[in-house]
Amino acid sequence: MAMDETDRTLEQLLAGLMAVRDGNLDTRLPEDAGGLPGNIAAVFNGMVAQLSQVTTEVTRVAQEVGGEGRLGGQARVPPVGGVWRELTDAVNSMADNLTSQVRNISQVATAVARGDLTQKIRVDARGEILELKDTINTMVERLSSFAEEVTRVAREVGTEGNLGGQATVHGVSGTWMDLTNNVNSMADNLTNQVRNIAQVTTAVAEGDLTRKIDVDARGEILELKTTINTMVDQLGSFAAEVTRVAREVGSEGRLGGQAEVADVSGTWRRLTENVNELAANLTGQVRAIAEVTSAVARGDLTRTVAVEAPGEVGALKDNINSMVESLRATTRANEEKDWLKTQLARISGGIQGRRDLPTVARLIMREVPPLVHAQYGCFFLAHDGPQGAVGSVGAEQADQAEGQAPELVAIASYGLPDDPSSGPRRFRVGQSLVGQAAADHRVVVVDELPPGYAPVLTGTGSADPSSLIVLPIVFEGQVLGALELASLRPFAPLHRDFLEQFTELLGVNVSSLTANARTDELLERSQLLTAELSARSGELQARQRELQRSNAELQDKAALLADRNRDIERKNHQIEQARQELEERAQELARASLYKSEFLANMSHELRTPLNSLLILAQLLAQNPEGNLTEKQADYAAVIHSAGSDLLQLINDILDLSKVEAGRMDVHPEPVSLQRVLDYVDVTFRPVADERGLEFTVSGAPSAGEGLVTDEARLRQVLRNLVSNALKFTRTGGVSLRVQPAGPQEVPDPLRGAGPVLAFRVIDTGIGIPAEQLESVFDAFQQGDSGADRAYGGTGLGLSISREVSKLLGGTITAESTMGQGSCFTLYLPEHDGRAQVRPAPAGAGEEGEEAEERDGSAPALRFAAQVDDEGLRDRTVLLVDDDSRNVFALTEVLKSAGMQVLTADNGEAGIRLLAAHPEVDLVVMDLMMAGLDGYATTRAIRAMPRLAELPVVVVTAKAMPGDRAEALAAGASDYVVKPVAPDRLLTALRTWLTPR
Predict the structure, then answer these.
(1) Which of 276, 263, 214 has its CA nearest to residue 235?
(2) CB proximity list for 710: less than 8 A, separation 6 or greater
(3) Mean of the pLDDT values across residues 94-109?
(4) Whose CA is closest to 467, among 329, 586, 372?
(5) Which DSSP symbol is given to 961?
(6) How far is CA 809 from the centre of its chain?
(7) Run of H or E residues at 814
(8) Lowest pLDDT segment from 195-199, 368-372, 670-674
(9) What is the C-alpha separation between 808 and 803, in angstroms, rounded?
(10) What's the per-residue H, E or C state across 185-240?
């Protein structure tokens, strides 16, 4: 057994020694054995550890000095003795000597490289290093002498312009003498050649194109001589042609001229082509403007200047187009105004001279409904009571007895399906919409009528109207009747203006007819009294006095009626003036809104188009897929991508603010999962908080928001702005979002009575806001403290947009803050907005969803893998149609990185030709805004080709205004992606439409 233990110990020792011999210094022997084997293992392990440490240090010094060029390194080994100590000292000594010698040689070489020829190598050296030292010192001395002479000649010839100078160097031979002679020969040749070239170029500068260079020359100087002589010839020919074209176009007014210069290329050819392009552009622009102005002079306002023109000509084009549009709008407004006046005058003329109210009512029902495209109409007249006389309903009659309540009775109708035997329709004031309109003195409009509400009957069938309008007939605060109309289509604004003005005029006429009817009634009574007085002779005198009194009263009433008519005419004149002013202001507002919408649409397109290529290329550079960029260069690309993302967010904020101001931001209430919203906020902002070292919590009270009905996308937008602001202005501490039911006492006044209200509180420990600036932070482009925007950045639009969006959701936002301690912004939101019914998303909801997605992402994130291995895309052929070379370059890189074959076209016609020539195309990526044949027309043309009717067409465009998506899909597009587009999202869209092979 003892012998076996010894053999095992020797075998382990032999294995360790063989490993050390082979260079493996990680081998260790077990030390747990006792006696001699344990001692042997301990000694072996210590020896291997020392050897490993010495080897590591020597290797490090050798790597630093020989591999990395870092001089001055020293091997650091704990106290050792014997050969290990000698080896360490020898390595350190070698490193010291090599460091001092190389550094001294480097200093002299660096000085020579900087032009300092006064330094020498003075370090002690031996052997080959000493020979190198002497050689370098001799070289420096001769180089100094030669440099002085060459510098003098170069200064005289090159700096002072003194040609003919010669270098004189004493005591040199061999290469230095040859070099000196070559410098002198070069100076002579250069003097002769430069002087001759200077003479010719001076003549050219003075306008003399007859001189040529005739000095002998070789090589590049000969090429320069030939080039200058050719340039003089071509310049003479070019000057003659340009002068001819300028004279024809500028002096003689002959458009269409072209310069013809033969045998030119390069700059001269481009210059000739630029002159020809200038003449052609000027010809096209002037002729296009002349055609439009001639058409306007003939009264044709449908033409516009469509030719492309930059600069002042472009401004002239825009001004002419604006003038034509203004003339067109003015003509349309005048036509509508003339129509209103004509129809009011026509119907008023038909009413004049008629004293019977039923006859007037029938005339109105016969004329007015067809005029406003109504298929149902009813004329109601106010009566004092059931079966009572015609009268008027004023505010003082509201407290009449039940039996004497005023009524509105239908006396004429148009298309009414009622049975005549059932009697006329009657409504008390305040009963039904007819009575309510009379009681409130306001027009009632109802759209989207339910089926069967008021069917329009014909001999062949029936239809349900979609719009109803009830207009009270009011005169001097008293209701004289009401007019009810229904139409199969919504009433046009022009027709509603006509009806409102007509009812005002009708009130005057009905009041006059009512007064006339009462006057006639009094006259009849007077005649009856006169007959009775004639029959009763005994009471003649008393009756005559009574009759005189009645006549006096009638005269007073007639005079009063005449005064009232004059007042009515004066008020009508004032009303007409006010109406005209309102129409002018409405036209100005409509024109301003149109200009603003067009500007925002153009701004969105012009900014998103370059941003698309900038963000995609910056993203690809930041990921550095080929590894040929430094880390700092990749960081630069990431900064560019971040700046582009901030600019895109600014564009989105401005578009949101304009939508709110224009009232075009819609909300789509639907049941919302509050937990899903909180998870979205947590996932979105927790990485930001962790990066800034802030505590971030998101919590919701149990059972809070179980019945929440609102627009989830808009709610996310508000919470995103509030939490983003809190993180931006918080440097230490934390930010939290807490959701809980609002207590009855804290609910803001506008939301009282709205049912259960949720409070979304965003609390931070940031810088705080002064109390006097808590309201101003909700104004557009405001951030509270005037220096906050400089210290923290941002546009100041987020809170303004958030407050407006919260109002659209039926809620409100409040703010509390303490300087230096933090702020609390609270969104109060009803669990169910009673102002809107929950309904399915409309047809355009996809557009809103896409817009919300763009808002959430703001810009393509830096997560796209530059090399995509996708079987569904590799080797598929895609046609890219876009007139912006930057977008073409960026999108081509993305598509090629996915393994796709890319064909490009810069306009619609070229794209169609490529499709015809390349049947292997699997998909088309189409831009919408292109010169000539735009994306809509190109897509329609593709769909009209039977072979390409099913070819997928994915629109990638910067047009992001409401309605653009629906218009693109209606033109035949398969999908719609808004720029700037994330590469992952683009490839996902393409993958959706490419069926696997």
Answers:
(1) 263
(2) 667, 669, 670, 672, 809, 810, 829, 833
(3) 79
(4) 372
(5) S
(6) 24
(7) strand 812-818
(8) 195-199
(9) 9
(10) HHHHHHHHHHHHHHHHHHHHHCCCCCCCCCCCCCHHHHHHHHHHHHHHHHHHHHHH
Specify the range with the lowest mean pLDDT, choosing from 310-324, 386-400, 621-635, 836-850: 836-850
Measured in degrees and rounded to the nearest 5, phi and psi for residue 937 equal: -65, -40
pLDDT at 162: 78
Mean pLDDT of all residues in the chain? 76
| Selection from 115, 105, 113, 180 nearest residue 137 by Cα | 105
Contacts of 416-425 with C-beta under 8 Å, sequence gap 24+, read: 416/376, 416/377, 416/378, 417/455, 417/457, 425/378, 425/380
Residue 252 in 3-state DSSP? Answer: coil
- Give me the residue label for tokens 């210059």: 271
If one compares 586 and 356, the residue with the highest pLDDT of the two is: 356
The closest of 722, 882, 902, 699 to 802, measured between CA atoms, is 722
Strand positions, DSSP E, 360-402 = 376-383
Express each pLDDT in 301-312 by its tens digit: 777 877 777 777
Token pair 């195309």 in the structure block, residue: 921
Residue 910 pLDDT > 80, yes or no?
A: yes
Question: Taking a C-beta distance cutoff of 8 angstroms, is the pair 694, 737 a contact?
Answer: no
pLDDT tens, position by position, 971-992 = 889 888 877 777 888 888 888 8
Instruction: Give the SS3 label for residue 888.
Output: helix
Instruction: Give the tokens for residue 134.
Output: 């002497």
Residue 70 has which token pair? Answer: 């870092």
Buried b (16+ CB within 10 A) or exposed e, 424-441: ebbbbbeeebbbbbbbee
Per-residue pLDDT at 661 exceeds 60: no
Tokens at 370, concatenated: 């067809």
- Spatial contact of 615 and 860, defined as CB atoms under 8 Å apart: yes
Calculate the dihedral angle through the C-alpha atoms of 604, 610, 611, 617, rounding to the nearest 10 degrees: 160
Query: CA-CA distances (angstroms) from residue 593 to 335, 590, 597, 823, 826?
Result: 21, 5, 6, 37, 33
For residues 276-303, give the mean pLDDT.
75
Which residue has 């940031």 as its token pair?
766
Query: Which is nearest to 457 in space by CA: 377, 376, 379, 380?
Result: 376
User: Among candidates 269, 270, 289, 292, which has minimal Cα distance to 281?
Assistant: 289
Assign 3-class secondary structure to 841-890: CCCCHHHHHHHHHHHHHCCCCCCCCCCCCCCCCCCCEEEEECCCHHHHHH
φ and ψ at 683, to 5 degrees? -65, -35
Q: Say yes or no to pLDDT of 867 above 60.
A: no
Give the model's pLDDT for residue 569.
Answer: 85
The mean pLDDT value for 631-653 works out to 62
pLDDT at 953: 92
Angle at CA of residue 482, ends 481 and 484, nearest 5°: 155
> Coil, strand or helix: which one is 898?
coil
Look up the pTM and report it: 0.34
Of 522, 520, 517, 515, the residue nearest 565 (C-alpha): 515
Find the radius of gyration of the CA atoms of the chain.
47
Number of CB atoms found within 10 A of residue 150's CB: 17
In this prediction, residue 860 has a pLDDT band, given cuts at 50, 70 and 90, of very low
The whole-angstrom separation of Cα 822 and Cα 726 is: 9
